[in-house]
Amino acid sequence: MVDLCYYEILSVEKTANKTELKKAYRKMAMKYHPDKNPNNKEAEENFKAVNEAYQVLSDEKKREIYDRYGKEAVHQNQGQHHGGFEDISSMFEDLFSGGFSRQQTQQKRYSYELDMLEQLEIKFHEAIFGVEKELKYNYKTACKSCKATGAKDGKLSKCQSCGGVGEIHSRQGFMTFAQTCPACQGSGQAVTQKCKSCKATGYDTIKDTIKVKIPAGINDNNRIRVSKKGNIDPNNHRGDLYINIKVKEDEHFVRHEDDIYLEVPVFFTQIALGATIDVPSLDGKLSLNIPPNSKDKEHFVFKNKGVKGVNSYTKGDFIVQIKIVYPQKLDDTQKKLLDKLQESFGIKSKPYQKGFDKMFENIKGWFT
Length: 368
Hints:
This protein is an alpha+beta fold. Helix content is 30%, strand content 27%. Strands 10-11-15-14 form a four-stranded mixed β-sheet. A three-stranded mixed β-sheet has the order 1-9-8. A two-stranded antiparallel sheet has the order 2-7.
């Protein structure tokens, strides 16, 4: 399975609730379960990925860590606590090598996330067959002059808004509510003199170019993770780069999941007589047999001629939809030929006539 984000693995939105997550998990787990796919390594790997994604997203604390810091933080916490999470503070213990305290929170002074997201646009056929692309992007690294604080020489003063405690309190009746200080984001410290090197942002921006292997079958809005290519913190820890794939639409082919659709215009005489025509597909030519009197927008399905999805071990279908085309103009010869054809059918060329005769008689009675 390509290293997609957990939401992509379960095919759910980032806003999915527990019920939606459970429903998606059951569907994917059933699809890739080893009992249904004996001796299938790919299905086995997919099943493991689905279980991992659900284990994290169904747990509120794990999900919060994942949404903020990515898989690396989740894996670090699982290793530290043997697969479980005691509380949100465990995440800080792993990331900053110590216990969770107000003093430790102050050390995380940088204002950017380590994981980052970029977008890469590819062509339709590149998504189908796979491709290697170059991606130019900018990542952040901690400013050495201010040690990522944004303050001149890294010197910070006590936050005036919260008095250095990192929290502000308010009372409503007999209840007291605490919230993170919005001025210092809970650090308890503030910038007095701005760092000129980074203009008080706390980071420098570095240009980089990487080569990305796009696997065959990837779809629009799938994400690829490139490990250790994200932003860098003051302790030289580096996050991951997530690449959101955007697939350009093709002029003729339309993709829905792993199925490919193609609309084929067919002249009305071919519908009347029936026809066999060659149609283009992802694999080359396919022979399409159109029986006489086929309907407009009728589908003809070629099994297993679609796309092998990025997380699938079978191909989708190739589906041809016919569109009946009629002549826009007729010359005199064509009109005479059609008139002659219609006469040859006799009463059959006027299927409405029999019913209309009776209707006309009934209508006459309405006015007498």
